[in-house]
Write a structure and sequence with these properties.
160 residues; alpha+beta; Peptide Deformylase; 3-stranded antiparallel sheet; 4 helices; 34% strand; binds zinc ion
């Protein structure tokens, strides 16, 4: 297990489309472990493989309810709408409001190669959408409807 370097906005890798995982080999398992370590070290709620420079469709999320690993995630259903406040480990110090579906159903593979279906709402739905966007080279700042101002950022920092 190891902490990997998180790429920052401006790195062209973050704008590329990631490829599907065709075989869950040791490299993918090590990637999953390293991504979880890296996410926890950075106090993030989610991390996508391109953020550590690997253009594979792999995501880890932990919104405080345990680690979720998604390989080749596909959003199958999305309903409703919520306005979220988002940040990104690749875009430090920037927060903004984004419109996301209120509920999503995502299909993926787990590390054993088993097909899993996760239905999520609220913060988890937000995290799934944010991370899956990374796999298509999309950053939350592309979708922001309003950036938080300095006063709001100060408040966010005090809370976190
Ligand atoms: Zn992000």
């Amino acid at each position: 297990m190891a902490i990997r370097n998180i790429l920052k906005d401006g790195d062209e890798i973050l704008r590329k489309k990631s490829r599907e995982v065709t075989e869950i080999n040791d490299n993918i398992l090590i990637l999953l472990d390293d991504m979880a370590d890296t996410m926890y070290k950075a106090n993030g709620a989610g991390l996508a493989a391109p953020q550590v420079g690997v253009l594979r469709r792999v995501v880890v999320i932990d919104i405080g309810e345990g680690l979720v690993e998604l390989i080749n995630p596909v959003i199958k259903e999305q309903t409703g709408q919520q306005t979220t406040i988002e940040g990104c480990l690749s875009i430090p110090g920037i927060w903004g409001e984004v419109e996301r579906p209120a509920r999503v159903v995502v299909e993926a593979l787990n590390r054993k190669g088993e097909k899993i279906t996760i239905e999520s709402e609220g913060f988890m739905a937000q995290a799934v959408c944010h991370e899956v966007d990374h796999l298509d080279g999309i950053l939350f700042t592309d979708k922001v409807i309003r950036f938080l101002d300095e006063e709001e950022l100060d408040r966010m920092e005090q809370e976190s």
